[in-house]
Amino acid sequence: MCGLFDSPDTFPAQYCAYNDEHTFLRAIMKRRTPQEKKLLSYAKDRRNDYGENDKSSRKSIPRNKKAPHHANRHRVTQVLEAAKGTVDEVAEGAVEERLLRKRPKSWQKYRDAPLGDIVQYKIARRVDRGIADEKEGAARIQRVRRRLRQPTA
Predict the structure, then answer these.
(1) 3-class DSSP state for residue 114?
(2) C-alpha pair distances (Å), 151 with each of 110, 121, 146
(3) 74 versus 84: which is more confidently predicted?
(4) Quick count: other Cβ atoms within 10 Å of Cβ 42?
(5) ∠ CA(115), CA(121), CA(122), 5° rounding?
(6) Helix axis angle, 134-147 to 115-128, nearest 10°
(7) Cβ distance 148 to 39 under 8 Å?
(8) Are 83 and 95 in contact (CB under 8 A)?
(9) pTM
(10) How many whole angstroms from its chain centre is CA 114?
(11) 122 Cβ neighbours under 8 A, 6+ residues apart
Protein backbone atom coordinates (compact mmCIF):
# COMPACT_ATOMS: atom_id res chain seq x y z
CA MET A 1 0.00 0.00 0.00
CA CYS A 2 1.42 3.38 -0.91
CA GLY A 3 0.14 6.90 -1.17
CA LEU A 4 -3.42 7.17 0.10
CA PHE A 5 -3.28 4.20 2.48
CA ASP A 6 0.17 3.58 3.93
CA SER A 7 -0.42 0.18 5.49
CA PRO A 8 -3.04 -2.58 5.30
CA ASP A 9 -4.20 -1.49 8.76
CA THR A 10 -5.28 1.95 7.49
CA PHE A 11 -7.14 0.55 4.45
CA PRO A 12 -10.83 1.16 5.32
CA ALA A 13 -12.89 -1.94 6.09
CA GLN A 14 -15.71 -0.93 3.73
CA TYR A 15 -13.28 -1.23 0.80
CA CYS A 16 -12.10 -4.77 1.60
CA ALA A 17 -13.71 -6.00 -1.63
CA TYR A 18 -10.84 -4.28 -3.44
CA ASN A 19 -7.57 -6.16 -3.20
CA ASP A 20 -5.34 -3.08 -3.34
CA GLU A 21 -5.35 0.69 -3.33
CA HIS A 22 -4.94 1.03 -7.12
CA THR A 23 -8.07 -1.03 -7.81
CA PHE A 24 -9.95 1.00 -5.20
CA LEU A 25 -8.92 4.34 -6.74
CA ARG A 26 -9.83 3.17 -10.25
CA ALA A 27 -13.26 2.14 -8.98
CA ILE A 28 -14.08 5.49 -7.36
CA MET A 29 -12.59 7.78 -10.04
CA LYS A 30 -15.02 8.93 -12.70
CA ARG A 31 -14.16 8.38 -16.34
CA ARG A 32 -14.50 11.64 -18.28
CA THR A 33 -15.84 12.10 -21.78
CA PRO A 34 -13.80 14.07 -24.34
CA GLN A 35 -16.29 16.94 -24.02
CA GLU A 36 -15.79 17.07 -20.24
CA LYS A 37 -12.03 16.97 -20.72
CA LYS A 38 -12.18 19.91 -23.15
CA LEU A 39 -14.39 21.91 -20.77
CA LEU A 40 -11.94 21.31 -17.93
CA SER A 41 -9.02 22.21 -20.18
CA TYR A 42 -10.60 25.51 -21.24
CA ALA A 43 -11.45 26.37 -17.63
CA LYS A 44 -8.35 25.17 -15.76
CA ASP A 45 -5.42 25.35 -18.21
CA ARG A 46 -3.76 28.75 -18.24
CA ARG A 47 -1.69 30.68 -20.78
CA ASN A 48 0.66 33.62 -20.42
CA ASP A 49 -1.19 36.75 -21.57
CA TYR A 50 1.42 39.27 -20.46
CA GLY A 51 2.89 39.40 -23.94
CA GLU A 52 6.25 37.80 -23.28
CA ASN A 53 7.60 34.43 -24.34
CA ASP A 54 5.96 31.84 -22.11
CA LYS A 55 9.23 29.88 -21.85
CA SER A 56 11.08 32.90 -20.47
CA SER A 57 8.93 32.80 -17.32
CA ARG A 58 11.07 29.91 -16.15
CA LYS A 59 13.97 32.34 -15.70
CA SER A 60 12.28 35.72 -15.33
CA ILE A 61 10.01 34.83 -12.38
CA PRO A 62 12.90 33.78 -10.10
CA ARG A 63 14.93 36.80 -11.28
CA ASN A 64 12.07 39.19 -10.57
CA LYS A 65 11.57 37.68 -7.11
CA LYS A 66 15.28 37.94 -6.35
CA ALA A 67 15.87 41.56 -7.40
CA PRO A 68 13.73 43.35 -4.75
CA HIS A 69 15.06 41.10 -1.97
CA HIS A 70 18.62 41.86 -3.06
CA ALA A 71 17.89 45.62 -3.16
CA ASN A 72 16.30 45.51 0.32
CA ARG A 73 19.26 43.61 1.81
CA HIS A 74 21.71 46.01 0.15
CA ARG A 75 19.88 49.05 1.54
CA VAL A 76 19.81 47.64 5.08
CA THR A 77 23.51 46.82 4.86
CA GLN A 78 24.34 50.36 3.67
CA VAL A 79 22.37 51.98 6.52
CA LEU A 80 23.87 49.69 9.16
CA GLU A 81 27.42 50.20 7.83
CA ALA A 82 27.00 53.94 8.36
CA ALA A 83 25.96 53.34 11.98
CA LYS A 84 28.99 51.19 12.90
CA GLY A 85 30.86 52.10 16.02
CA THR A 86 29.94 52.75 19.63
CA VAL A 87 26.31 52.29 20.66
CA ASP A 88 24.54 55.61 20.95
CA GLU A 89 20.80 55.80 21.59
CA VAL A 90 20.36 58.86 19.38
CA ALA A 91 22.24 57.26 16.49
CA GLU A 92 20.35 53.99 17.04
CA GLY A 93 17.01 55.82 16.84
CA ALA A 94 18.13 57.68 13.72
CA VAL A 95 19.18 54.43 12.00
CA GLU A 96 15.93 52.70 12.90
CA GLU A 97 13.91 55.69 11.68
CA ARG A 98 15.89 55.73 8.45
CA LEU A 99 15.25 52.02 7.88
CA LEU A 100 11.52 52.35 8.52
CA ARG A 101 11.15 55.53 6.44
CA LYS A 102 11.15 53.74 3.10
CA ARG A 103 8.84 50.82 2.29
CA PRO A 104 10.71 47.66 1.21
CA LYS A 105 10.57 46.81 -2.48
CA SER A 106 8.43 43.87 -3.53
CA TRP A 107 7.31 42.01 -6.64
CA GLN A 108 4.12 40.07 -7.29
CA LYS A 109 3.35 37.63 -10.10
CA TYR A 110 -0.02 37.97 -11.78
CA ARG A 111 -1.99 34.88 -12.71
CA ASP A 112 -2.00 33.68 -16.27
CA ALA A 113 -5.33 33.79 -18.11
CA PRO A 114 -7.62 30.76 -18.57
CA LEU A 115 -7.21 29.01 -21.91
CA GLY A 116 -10.87 29.63 -22.84
CA ASP A 117 -10.41 33.41 -22.56
CA ILE A 118 -7.21 33.30 -24.64
CA VAL A 119 -8.89 31.27 -27.40
CA GLN A 120 -11.82 33.71 -27.57
CA TYR A 121 -9.44 36.70 -27.68
CA LYS A 122 -7.37 35.17 -30.49
CA ILE A 123 -10.43 34.40 -32.60
CA ALA A 124 -11.79 37.94 -32.10
CA ARG A 125 -8.39 39.44 -32.99
CA ARG A 126 -8.22 37.41 -36.22
CA VAL A 127 -11.68 38.68 -37.18
CA ASP A 128 -10.73 42.31 -36.37
CA ARG A 129 -7.59 42.08 -38.49
CA GLY A 130 -9.48 40.54 -41.42
CA ILE A 131 -7.59 37.24 -41.24
CA ALA A 132 -10.74 35.22 -40.50
CA ASP A 133 -14.29 35.54 -41.76
CA GLU A 134 -16.52 37.55 -39.40
CA LYS A 135 -19.45 35.11 -39.51
CA GLU A 136 -17.21 32.06 -39.02
CA GLY A 137 -15.32 33.79 -36.19
CA ALA A 138 -18.55 34.66 -34.37
CA ALA A 139 -19.69 31.04 -34.68
CA ARG A 140 -16.38 29.78 -33.26
CA ILE A 141 -16.56 32.20 -30.33
CA GLN A 142 -20.14 31.07 -29.65
CA ARG A 143 -18.97 27.44 -29.71
CA VAL A 144 -16.18 28.14 -27.21
CA ARG A 145 -18.57 30.06 -24.94
CA ARG A 146 -21.09 27.22 -25.14
CA ARG A 147 -18.39 24.70 -24.18
CA LEU A 148 -17.40 26.90 -21.25
CA ARG A 149 -21.07 27.24 -20.31
CA GLN A 150 -20.77 31.02 -20.43
CA PRO A 151 -23.70 33.24 -21.43
CA THR A 152 -23.64 33.90 -25.15
CA ALA A 153 -23.50 37.56 -26.11
Answers:
(1) strand
(2) 26, 16, 8
(3) 74
(4) 21
(5) 90
(6) 170
(7) yes
(8) yes
(9) 0.60
(10) 10
(11) none
